[in-house]
Amino acid sequence: MNQVASIRPSDLISLAWSALKRNRLRSLLTVGAxxxxxxxxxxxxxxxxxxxxxxLDSVAQSSSLLSITVKSGSDQLQPLNQDAFHxxxxxxKVKEVLPQLTLKxxxxxxxxxxxxxxxxxxxxxxxxxxxxxxxxGRYFQPQDAQTxxxxxxxxxxxxxxxxxxxxxxxxxxxxxxxxxxxxxGSNLDSISVSGIVNASGVAVYMPRQYLEQILGxxxxxxxxxxxxxxxxxxxxxxxxxxxxxxxxxxxxxxxxDQIEKVxxxxxxxxxxxxxxxxxxxxxxxxxxLTISLLxxxxxxxxxxxxxxxxxxxxxxxxxxxxxMGLLGGGIGILTALFAQQLTIFVLALLASLxxxxxxxxxxxxxxxxxxxxxxxxxxxxxTGIFPAQRASRINPIEAIRYE
Amino acid sequence: xxxxxxxxPIPKDPIPEDTVQATLAYQIGNDRPTDxxxxxxxxxxxxxxxxxxxxxxxxxxTTETYQExxxxxxxxxxxxxxxxISYTEVIKGINFNVLExxxxxxxxxxxxxKSTLLHLLAGLEVPTRGDIYVRNHPIHRLNDxxxxxxxxxxxxxxxxxxxxxxxxxxxxxxxxxxxxxGAPREWRQHEALKMLERFGLADFATHLPSxxxxxxxxxxxxxRALIHDPEILLIDEPTGNLDSHSANIVIHEIDRLHKQExxxxxxxxxxxxxxxxxxxxxxxxxxTLLTSNEPSRLNST
Lengths: 403, 301
Known about the structure:
The structure holds two protein chains of two kinds.
Chain A: H1 9-22, H2 24-59, E1 67-71, H3 82-89, E2 94-109, E3 112-121, H4 123-129, E4 134-137, E5 147-150, H5 152-157, E6 169-175, E7 186-197, E8 203-207, H6 208-215, E9 224-229, H7 232-244, E10 248-251, H8 252-295, H9 297-305, H10 310-353, H11 366-392, H12 396-401
Parallel strand pairs in A: 3-8, 5-7
Antiparallel strand pairs in A: 1-9, 1-10, 2-3, 2-6, 2-9, 4-7, 5-8, 6-7
Helix pairs in contact in A: 1-10, 2-8, 2-10, 2-11, 8-11, 10-11
Chain B: H1 17-23, H2 37-46, E1 70-81, E2 88-99, E3 103-107, H3 114-121, E4 129-134, E5 137-138, H4 144-154, E6 155-158, H5 170-174, H6 176-180, H7 185-198, H8 214-226, E7 232-236, H9 244-259, E8 264-269, E9 280-285, E10 288-291
Parallel strand pairs in B: 3-8, 3-9, 6-7, 7-8
Antiparallel strand pairs in B: 1-2, 1-4, 4-5, 9-10
């Protein structure tokens, strides 16, 4: 006898669709269960990704990934002085060495006075090294004198507006702590504010070269260097060279690695929680398909008697379950997106009470969405295999007798 | 000798008098021994007045080898269920053949095994012993593919309880066998409407089966059985769930399928109304056949 044709895929889908429509309530419940599972999982995972991105953003800009901080410490073999500066500068692949000088001082405006940290840096230190963004005004030039950048915390002490660059002139008295050469009384008159930088604490940033000029031989050792390199591949060799030369270092890239590691586990836990929801949904779907099979024994028998092949019965049942999975996945993703918007909306309401901003909490990459749709198809397909197999084995005559 | 030759049997079936009289108005023979146990058994079932055709009690087997015009050949066909204490033999070693263009009515009381016999012929059940050949192909030994081909191409099935697919519309039900063959939708719809037109159901094409009356559903089932133009029609108790008016329509439609379209029909029933239309009647009781040997009325119709 001839080879028997199979049902066309389009007919298979329309058959499956009419079967789902016929048991509308049951189909909806199954689709709903899958949707809930996928929605929970997607919501949690995108939250995990979003939180990770937020954390990383606050730690690292792409430029700061290319920098290594050389720190001072009591166990330091090598003091961070001019020698060290040149030594580091001589290491191959080092692009820039940006020293930071930290001093204590008293700043006064009219009758008001305050103690503050005076930080002597090159403008690149703020821009590249430590990624300290400018809130108002402008950065100073390396050769500038009698100028400084201030923090919002500093301005608040003087009751000044923190949103725009104040046109005021401070007097600065540098005080040297410890038992280093006495430079007390180094008076710097008429220091104008060139801008406000987004950094915490009460501090002012002044051009390093200008400070070094004032202090002359009394200059203390540097607090730290920020060493920049040209590409990510250079970070490791330069770090190794620094360590070999007896310097103590830290890298933003290490922190990023650690954050990624921590968030990998956070994501895994969140995915696990979502996974439980999906497992419950899958069991529900399995149950539904099996019960639906019992109810449809007669229908399957009729189909077989009319000449539907075993493989076609199996394909029909698989199509039904994949169709439900696809619908469940789609609805689940939409639900998750909606729940995210709802969360952001509620948080924005709360934030408006305290005049804060809501960061973008969720990270919905398209790969995540596509991944979830594929996942929904996969689990529904797997769930459907056993009932489909059972359906294809139904004896038509038992089925037709079955009332 | 017992009853006069012209006697109409008095039916025990709850079928209206007029229908029975209209359909049973034919002569039946009376030349047989009255002490025949099988005849007595039949008369017990259908009434004392009933006398079967002349050739009824002769052997039911024409030949054991294949002949050109043979559709079915069953040899020592046996079907049993269960094991040990629950063992029951439903079909007990039946032999017969069915030739092209015959209209066989398998007639017997409920529980006689007649439906099982039809299911065996339809390839829906596998015999415990014995052989069934369709056009010399042993259907009890076909694989899934071959059996599927048999269902799709060779045979049309009509069931007692219509067995329409509830989730599909009337026209989709009718054209279902065409869909299996991979025919395009438009063509299927066209063919289904043509067939429904013939059964006076064109207006119901987009209805669901549950929105139709029993008679309409049975006509849809007939339409479905015919859409792929099968040579053989296997029909199980087609009027069992119908009122007399609907039953009449179905009875005459089946008769037309036999007389005009020359299809081979095997119909299973416990109702006498089909008997006058048959070329041969197989009486079945307790799994044993009692048939007329000659396709006696085949030539006369």
